[in-house]
Amino acid sequence: MNNSDTSAILSTEDHSELMQNIANKTSSQFFHLPPVANKSLEKSRDEHSQNGKIDADGILLEKFERSSQDPALILYTSGTTGKPKGVVHTHGSIIAQVQSLTKAWEYTSADQFLHCLPLHHVHGLFNGLLAPLYAGSTVEFLPKFSVGGIWKRWRESYPTEGSKADDATTVFTGVPTMYARLIQGYRAMDPELQAVSASAARNLRLMMCGSSALPQPVMQEWEAITGHRLLERYGMTEFVMALSNPLKGERKAGTVGKPLPGVQVKILADEEHGNEINEAGELCVKSPSLFKEYWKLPEVTKESFTEEGFFKTGDAVTTDKDGYYIILGRTSADIIKAGGYKLSALEIESVIIEHPAVSECCVLGLPHKEYGEIVGAIIVPEADVKRKRDEESKPALSIEELSTWAKDKLAPYKIPTRLILWDSLPRNAMGKVSKKELKKILASEQ
Q1: Where does the AMP-dependent synthetase/ligase domain lie (predicted)?
Q2: Which sequence spans correspond to the domains of the chain?
């Protein structure tokens, strides 16, 4: 609040006490928003529609043309690799992005989004709200993420085979942990409810996933249950979305697709020798949706761009034979420098998560005097496996068991040499694990 120089806070009744206290501690004025009754928007919609389609260009562009380079939003980065920075987006960058997403994923006024993501990051704000509203779609909010609530809403949308409610959900976008929990909820249903739920989910037009890497077992099981191959894409607070698997065409597991129209990308090659990651380097992006600056950080802003105006993402990437981009992880957190090799933590995680005893895992480089770093794995065991092993007075998984299992799946130097078992992984509001914080925790424990 203080960093952004906020001068006014608006709050509904539900949060008024909390926000009033914050206003008192800052230089902000507090304004209470009275309740707003639900009213039909059909009249307003009709006034700006042509043959049932929203004339978004007519409504928005004429108003923003004169102020396209003016600041419109300050969004803060998630802070997984450093202190959060205020990212300033302009009216022009917002319009460019929502137009791009609307076209790429074919959002229309016939779509209804079921929204349960936070609005302080670009996934929930742009993909799930601003772009749908630009297209004239309806956005329905859940108060919070609820496994039972989402399955129930889909069953209400498509109550029987071939039937569709007037307010049926057509698009859903979430983070990997949401889909993993939805799968757990599905497994807990009785067979009859499973059949109805899976049938309903198959009727949605589009399901997407982002904000962190999607484990392939989750993707495969979700496709088996619902028939949907989740559309993965890649974005950052600084430019929103830059790469995407196609709406129509092959969606490749483990990739984030190709550049969206109008987006230029290049890879700054890693010139160090002994690089295990073939033709990998830092992804750089130039896009009409690029942010204007980091708030109050002119030097950091300048250092974040190449001379040609490409933004340096800090993410290591490579491409497959078809030009689909593969995210290897943050250059500062997900690239492990072990004994002369550079290893992708995300690649190792994608293998370990397939172990039957593993519910969640986080792979990171841990300091080592001889090798620089060693491969460490923090694992959250599957509840049933942990319960059974506890009864036998054994750990849910041992490093020897993991090594034996992984020897045919990973090169020897990629197999973790340190295993840590935890009940859960600490995550931020977007479901992301901060490896920087994990390393601090492990260092303090040592």
Answers
A1: 2-295
A2: 8-326, 333-445
Residues 311 and 292 sit within 8 Å (Cβ to Cβ)? no
On whether the CB atoms of residues 197 and 187 are closer than 8 A, the answer is: no
Q: What fold characterizes domain 8-326?
A: Rossmann fold (3.40.50)
Are 276 and 343 a contacting pair, CB within 8 Å? yes
Q: Which residue has the tokens 């981009």?
A: 325
Strand pairing category for 8-11 and 29-32: parallel
Rg of the chain on CA atoms, in Å = 23
Report the top-level CATH class of 333-445. alpha beta
Long-range contacts of 268-276 (CB under 8 A, 24+ apart): 268/306, 268/312, 270/316, 270/342, 272/342, 274/340, 274/341, 274/342, 275/342, 276/341, 276/342, 276/343
Name the strand (E) or helix (H) holding 32: strand 29-32
What single-letter amino acid sits at 332? S
Q: Which residues of 81-118 are buried (b: 16+ CB within 10 A; e: fewer)?
A: eeeebbbbbbbbbbbbbbbbbbebbebebebbbbbbbb
Ranges assigned E (strand) in 66-148: 71-76, 86-90, 112-115, 138-141
pLDDT at 127 over 80: yes
Q: Kindly report the CA angle at 116 between 176 and 121, in degrees rounded to 5?
A: 75
User: Would the pLDDT of 275 be above 50?
Assistant: no
CA distances to 214, 333, 367 from 330, in Å: 15, 5, 17
- Six-digit token pair at 151? 């399955």
Banded model confidence at residue 331, pLDDT cuts 50, 70, 90:
confident
For the CA atoms of 287, 288, 291, 293, the dihedral, rounded to the nearest 10 degrees, stands at: 90
Give the H or E element holding residue 335: strand 335-338
pLDDT tens, position by position, 86-112: 999 999 999 999 999 999 999 999 999
Give dist(CA 366, CA 373) in Å, integer: 5
